[in-house]
Amino acid sequence: MDKLGLQTDTLPSPTAERPLLGLTVLVIEDSRYACEAMRLLCLRSGARIRRADCMRAARRHLQVYRPSVVIADLGLPDGDGIDLIKELSRAQQRVDAILAISGDTHLAADAIAAGADGFIEKPLTSLAQFQQIVLSVLPPDRQPKGVRALVDETVEPDEIAYQDDMAHIADVLDESGDSVALDYVAQFLGGVARSASDTPLEKAALALAEKRALGQPAETERATIAGLVQNRLSQRIAI
Asked: pTM score, two decimals?
């Protein structure tokens, strides 16, 4: 569904070629790069996409719209995605399907326990895999009829979206150096860098996360990340 009160019989029926036709997917994701991948996957599957980049924006959205599917990142800038999943699963008018998404696979059990119907491991770029995951948690009346051929296709987000994520983290590092901000930087960059196959940045994010987990000073790791981020931002002109 989209707007509250919209009847399912007014929605177009899914087809073998576009198995998510008629669905509206709310993606709650702070990474522009990860969200761009989701946009392409939804577009090629027939679904509409709406985006919220934090828990507050998601809650505002859900006051007006009731999507068919919610895909919630577990690491959000203003709270834990697990808490949002609990809210969604206990809502009086529950959406058809709630999916958690994260690069931290150890969080899958917590997401399911909170009420998620399934878990998506980042990065996800396979069209067939995306469609299979979403369809597996939808009710029978939202399933396409007949035989459906799996499309062996992957999506590649625009590099500009990655640049936007780098600019976002540069702002976070400039505006705040407290422990909560550093934890967010490590979590955010770890997932984004993994999705973009940026191994040096992923390793730097992991090093920061390890220092934070041990409760040790992490100024060296913070400076390393700041330098890598600025290096990637300097490439903006070439894109």
From this structure: 0.88
